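Annotated sample (chain length 208).
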Amino acid sequence: MASTADDTKAAFMRNPWTASLLSEPNIICRVPGSRVPKASTEDSLFADVLKTKRTIGSCICYYKRPSETDEKISEVHTLITLGDGMNGHPSILHGGIVASILDEGMGILQSANHERDHMLRVGKGLAQGELPPHGIGSFTAELKVRYLKPVATPGSLVCTARYVKRDGRKEWIYAEIKQHIAHGEDDDEVVVCATAEALFIEPKPSKL
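Output written by the structure step:
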């Protein structure tokens, strides 16, 4: 059995590329809530099944600290270390997992804003508690993925998700996966491996 994963910033500080991303000024860095196992089985894919050294060994997210006047956290970056246990072709991440990471990155963006909205309400005396009340959230209604370059394994990647627009209960989000590719001692590049556009829909409020 693969050893237990470890969601820590230290895992990314050992990699010069991901360490440089985390050195950006005025950022908030934390472990996504979807990496925490829950009795309800919610998030079990990323919190249990894909939480091993051979799958996703480490996962953290970061974003620019919003000001009080910012309407939303507009962009969230998710850093992931990959093992070789999710490959489709030799040393290449399976395309279905690529799509799952893009979808998950979009969900992490939404969760960060859900938590921020709750804390703003707490500050105004309109809510209580350190975390927002549990809710169903939104559902992925459509996910269009473009595969541009193979995602190499083992390795690290960053998935960046940002809002596009909102209309009532519908919300459109864009995401992309990037990797640092070293071709030689003085020859490397950061490539966009995949992009996605998605439509999320919030369920109608319960009448009960």
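Annotation: The beta strands are 27-30, 56-64, 75-82, 87-89, 92-93, 139-147, 155-167, 170-184, 187-201.
Annotation: The chain is about 20% helix and 40% strand.
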